[in-house]
Write a structure and sequence with these properties.
alpha/beta, nine-stranded mixed sheet
């Protein structure tokens, strides 16, 4: 069995979506404190305190995040079967900054790879944006889906799709509409994924969220699993 990690690290000062709170991780207690050591020469972390939003790093959006109309459909109410699925990865690396990925582009990528989208799949969209632009001024300018492409994915009755970028659509062009379509059709998406360049086939996809009461999303440890 081969397991590929698809998740970003979480650390203080990491890049987050422009309207989200910054990540702040501090030592809450050390082993020296717990051991009541006087004048310690070392400070070994025993517990960290994390301050961050639910939408930090590699994360999944709950349906209640998609719009006011979807109130009550929080992350803790979504079935775990949505986060444990078969998955495929489509090569869309020819798309550049802030370019839109449309229905025909998804169909062409499926045809080129010899793959088909099945009901309850997770569809991962490989643009190579993470490797090209993370830690750069272009990180927030990734390619994204058109509203029509998101609607088409929803019509295939997928569980979710995943992107390397900070948003599934292009901000101020299609991003809001993509979110609304996910809520309306009852599927979700993952953002800030990594290592999609290592996925060349179908496999098992797992990305379990934390059980946050009323949560609008959750960081996940997303992985792809392949049988050797």
């Amino acid at each position: 069995m081969k397991i590929i990690d698809l998740s970003q690290e979480i650390y203080s000062g990491m890049q987050v979506y422009k309207s989200l709170p910054p990540v702040d991780i501090k030592v809450h207690a050390t082993h020296e404190q717990w051991n009541k050591e006087e004048n310690p020469t070392t400070y070994t972390p025993a517990v960290y305190k994390l301050e961050m939003s639910e939408h930090t790093g590699t994360h999944v959006d709950a349906l209640n995040h998609m719009g006011k109309a979807f109130e009550g459909q929080s992350i803790d109410t979504m079935p775990l079967s949505m986060f444990y699925t078969e998955g495929i990865c489509l090569d869309l690396t020819h798309f550049d900054l802030e370019e839109l990925i449309d229905v025909g582009d998804l169909k062409q990528a499926c045809e080129k790879a010899g793959l088909s989208i099945k009901q309850n799949d997770t569809v991962l969209l490989y643009t190579d944006h993470y490797r090209k632009h993370y830690h750069s001024g272009n990180w927030s300018k990734g390619p994204g889906l058109t509203a029509a492409a998101a609607y088409w994915l929803g019509q295939q009755k997928i569980a979710a799709f995943g992107v390397e970028t900070m948003s599934p659509g292009v901000p101020k062009i299609s991003n809001r509409e993509v979110h609304h379509i996910c809520g309306k059709l009852g599927f979700t998406h993952y953002e800030n994924m990594v290592n999609l360049n290592q996925l060349v086939d179908q496999g098992r996809f797992i990305a379990l969220p934390m059980k946050i009461r009323g949560g609008t999303g959750s960081p996940v440890r997303a992985v792809a699993i392949f049988e050797d």
